Task: inverse folding
């Protein structure tokens, strides 16, 4: 499905799920999302990680509502805990087969967001691996000069922010030399089309899930 | 221009060819006529800093290959950024006609997208190139710079030389009339450098204007038409005699190096390093203790990755032992106080804001050799003595490299892994850096490994020469 449509669909479903408690809808969404992820050939290890990492959050929610309360309620405990998984897995469904570049292009072409916003977000996303690398490097540089920076040391992040600011300025110059001018019209070489089938599956899925959320507990 | 064979002039094919040549010639002429680059009474200074460019007036020769030389920190990069419209002058005027493209000193920080293909698409969309014209532009840029195998690789994972090839490809796809290149070859191997300079020369013959700044003058003698010398006083063009003098081939260094290591600081046994492919597969290697070893090899072969592994920034398989202990078993915190890396990018080394603060930090763990007196003396030689309160980020590229080297030489280490110490340094600064490394090693008996392409300057101070090729490191006699 078109990335922007998929993003909007996930946004609407998340809103619906957070307004109305429905364990049935949550379970269907979780199973559906896992099947979709498997279908998109996401490695089992990654799916496993998506299930394991939210356990503390889901468990806390469950225990609060179903055990450690004056009126324990299994149903709300389970449906709120499963909500955590709905959010995580739906977001995974959006990003599993969409690269950051395609997503930015889709925001620009399909949703007509300003290109400055789309590419600004993209440039920031591309900075992430650099920042990760930088933090590792800064820690090593510190140790090489007898200064141990732990992961909660403010110095580590101060330095990382300094470097990021420096990179951001270079990046804006880089965008400019590659012809980017704010507000100027751009052509479309890499098209992100919306097909009829995209609209149909968007509408179909939205109807089915809305029905499940509002008419099943 | 396309040569016309006389025998063909009267045939129909010949008529077409000669017409094509004329149109081609006219096109080059037209392109040159439509291009202009000049500055008039230009002055510029960064916030609170003394004036860097003062009342400069200059017209750049269009359609020619110009080389810009001058000492570190004289304002070459700033002038180029002004020409590319990335900085605004406080005074004066810049006349710019035709599209200007620029390649930066820092290879990594000139891309918005993750892969070369996406970057080229991004640039062409900015220029409103139609999707029909895109394939031809892409093919041309890719074929000219030979980056076909890199097109969909993530740029973050590429070596410095590969990134600069990609940067040139983007400018070619954009079809810019004027190419400004700010020390683009600082981390490019000699072969890659020759390749890129030859390509630039071809582009100039096709009507493009090339303006390049560089400290290393190899390979330019036959391709440049103009050399501009940049100094505090301003910019002057060198005459023919001065140009000839400048391009005098330097004597080749032939050394004779040992291939047997007596005592080693590092021993590699069945060691493998992998990035996105296997880069090192070494059966056995000893790295000499208390000596200087130069490591050479093509871009992307894995030299920096070797240093990353030796400074515990990258995992390895097999064994690497340091002074008899397995590297992976040693605690980074204590190990890195003995073994330090001098990174390729100077800003990666800095932990404080100003020059003075950086020096103060290094002094806390300094070696016996670097007394206050010596530090002051070296700072003066580096022209940094009056810059103690300046932010390290506002120093010029060369000044950053010199300061970085100094703070690492002051700190007490037994092993130094120095990655490209001479990139971005002018001739005087290069000599200074080489001298300082040698003095440190003699005084402190450090084990020093250096990665560099500048063999002519560094081999005279080295005891060993290691060549990295085909996933192996081999000692060479010359």
Result:
């Amino acid at each position: 499905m078109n990335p922007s449509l998929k993003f909007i669909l996930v946004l609407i479903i998340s809103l619906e799920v957070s307004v109305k408690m429905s364990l049935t809808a949550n379970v269907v969404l979780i199973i559906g999302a896992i099947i979709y992820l498997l279908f998109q050939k996401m490695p089992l290890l990654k799916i496993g990680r998506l299930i394991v990492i939210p356990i503390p959050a889901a468990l806390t929610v469950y225990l609060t509502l179903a055990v450690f309360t004056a009126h324990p309620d299994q149903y709300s405990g389970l449906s709120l805990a499963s909500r955590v998984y709905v959010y995580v897995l739906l977001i995974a469904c959006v990003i599993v087969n969409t690269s950051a570049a395609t997503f930015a292009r889709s925001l620009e072409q399909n949703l007509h967001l300003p290109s400055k916003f789309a590419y600004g977000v993209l440039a920031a996303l591309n900075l992430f691996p650099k920042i990760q690398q930088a933090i590792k490097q800064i820690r090593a540089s510190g140790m090489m000069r007898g200064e141990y920076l732990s992961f909660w040391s403010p110095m580590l992040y101060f330095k990382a922010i300094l470097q990021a600011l420096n990179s951001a300025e270079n990046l804006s110059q880089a965008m400019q030399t590659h012809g980017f001018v704010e507000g100027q019209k751009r052509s479309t070489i890499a098209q992100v089309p919306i097909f009829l089938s995209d609209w149909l599956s968007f509408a179909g899925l939205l109807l089915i899930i809305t029905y499940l959320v509002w008419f099943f507990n | 221009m396309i040569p016309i064979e006389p025998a063909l002039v009267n045939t129909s094919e010949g008529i077409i060819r000669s017409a094509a040549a004329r149109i081609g010639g006219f096109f080059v002429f037209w392109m040159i006529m439509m291009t202009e680059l000049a500055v008039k009474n230009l002055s510029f200074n960064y916030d609170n800093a003394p004036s860097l460019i003062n009342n400069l007036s200059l017209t750049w020769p269009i359609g020619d290959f110009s080389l810009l030389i001058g000492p570190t920190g004289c304002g070459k990069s700033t002038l180029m950024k002004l020409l590319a419209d990335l900085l605004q002058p406080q005074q004066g005027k810049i006349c710019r006609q035709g599209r200007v493209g620029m390649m930066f000193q820092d290879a990594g920080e000139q891309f918005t997208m993750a892969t070369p293909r996406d970057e080229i698409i991004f640039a062409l969309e900015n220029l409103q190139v139609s999707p029909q014209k895109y394939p031809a532009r892409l093919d041309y840029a890719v074929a000219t710079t030979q980056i076909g195998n890199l097109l969909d690789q993530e740029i973050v994972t590429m070596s410095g030389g590969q990134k600069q090839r990609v940067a040139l490809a983007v400018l070619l796809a954009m079809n810019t009339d004027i190419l400004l290149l700010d020390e683009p070859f600082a981390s490019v191997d000699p072969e890659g450098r020759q390749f890129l300079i030859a390509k630039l020369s071809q582009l100039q013959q096709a009507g493009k204007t090339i303006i390049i700044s560089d400290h290393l003058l190899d390979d330019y003698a036959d391709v440049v038409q103009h050399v501009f010398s940049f100094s505090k006083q301003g910019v002057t063009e060198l005459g023919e005699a001065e140009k000839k003098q400048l391009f005098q081939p330097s004597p080749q260094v032939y050394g004779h190096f040992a291939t047997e290591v007596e005592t080693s600081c590092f021993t590699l046994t069945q060691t493998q390093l992998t990035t996105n492919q296997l880069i090192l597969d070494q059966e056995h290697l000893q790295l000499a203790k208390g000596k200087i070893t130069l490591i050479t090899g093509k871009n992307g072969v894995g030299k920096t990755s070797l240093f990353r592994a030796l400074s515990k920034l990258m995992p390895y398989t097999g064994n690497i032992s340091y002074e008899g202990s397995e590297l992976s078993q040693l605690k980074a915190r204590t190990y890195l106080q003995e073994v330090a890396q001098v990174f390729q990018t100077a800003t990666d080394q800095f932990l404080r804001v100003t020059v003075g603060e950086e020096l103060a930090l290094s002094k806390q763990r300094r070696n016996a050799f670097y007394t206050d007196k010596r530090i002051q003396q070296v700072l003066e030689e580096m022209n940094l003595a009056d810059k103690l309160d300046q932010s390290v980020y506002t120093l010029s590229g060369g000044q950053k490299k010199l300061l970085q080297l100094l703070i690492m030489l002051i700190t007490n280490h037994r092993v130094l892994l120095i990655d490209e110490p001479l990139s971005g340094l002018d001739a005087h600064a290069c000599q200074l850096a080489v001298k300082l490394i040698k003095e440190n090693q003699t005084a402190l008996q450090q084990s020093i490994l250096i990665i560099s392409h500048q063999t002519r300057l560094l081999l005279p101070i080295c005891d060993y020469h290691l060549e990295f090729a085909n996933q192996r490191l081999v000692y060479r006699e010359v």
